[in-house]
Amino acid sequence: MIAQLFSRRTAFGDAAVLVDALPPRQHVLVTGATGFIGRRLVAALAGAGHDVTVLTRDPAKAAALRPPIRIVTDLAQIASDARVDAVINLAGEPIGNAPWTRRKRRRILSSRLRVTRAVNRLIARLERRPAVVVSGSAIGWYGLWQDETLTEFDGGKRCFTHRVCDAWEREARKAQRLRVRVVRLRIGLVLGADGGMLRRMLAPFALGLGGPFGSGAQWMSWIERDDLVRMIAYIIATPSFTGPVNATAPTPVTNAEFARLLGGALKRPAFVRIPAFVLRHVAGAFADELMLGGQRVIPDKAQASGFVFRHETVRDALDAILGDATGGNLAVTRPMPVTRSAPAEQLVDQPAVEPAARLLRSLRAR
Question: What's the pTM value of the predicted model, to 2 decimals?
Answer without folding.
Answer: 0.85
